[in-house]
Amino acid sequence: MTGRKRNNPDKDDEYIMKRQKNNEAVNRTRQKKRQEETNTTQRVEELRKENAELERKVESLQNELKFLKEMFVAYAAGNKRKNSEAEATGAPGPSRKK
């Protein structure tokens, strides 16, 4: 014990019971904290995986956007060239639908 003397056996039993309950409470608290740390670690890992997947998706969409922009520019340039050639020859150019 911590240097104090106990003369009354009833108080000794009471003290032992209080210590036992306190020890159980401390163990429950520590176990709960370990479980929360485990849950947090798992959640962090899940979020990292999700983030990596989203980054791959963003990269894929950026590549698709770049490709579509290039196609649009090529189409617009080709269409512009056809219109210029048609105007130079006097032939009607491609009609636009409204």
UniProtKB/TrEMBL annotation:
GO terms for biological process: DNA-templated transcription. Pfam families: bZIP_2. It comes from Mesorhabditis belari. One of its GO terms (cellular component) is nucleus. GO terms for molecular function: DNA-binding transcription factor activity, RNA polymerase II-specific; RNA polymerase II cis-regulatory region sequence-specific DNA binding. Keywords: DNA-binding, Nucleus, Transcription, Transcription regulation. Residues 12-75 form the BZIP domain. Its main location: nucleus. It is found in: Nucleus. Gene3D superfamilies: 1.20.5.170. Residues 7-17, 43-54 have a biased composition (Basic and acidic residues). PANTHER family: CCAAT/ENHANCER BINDING PROTEIN, CCAAT_ENHANCER-BINDING PROTEIN GAMMA. This is BZIP domain-containing protein. Belongs to the bZIP family. C/EBP subfamily. Residues 1-54, 78-98 are annotated as: Disordered. InterPro entries: bZIP (IPR004827), bZIP_sf (IPR046347), C/EBP (IPR031106).
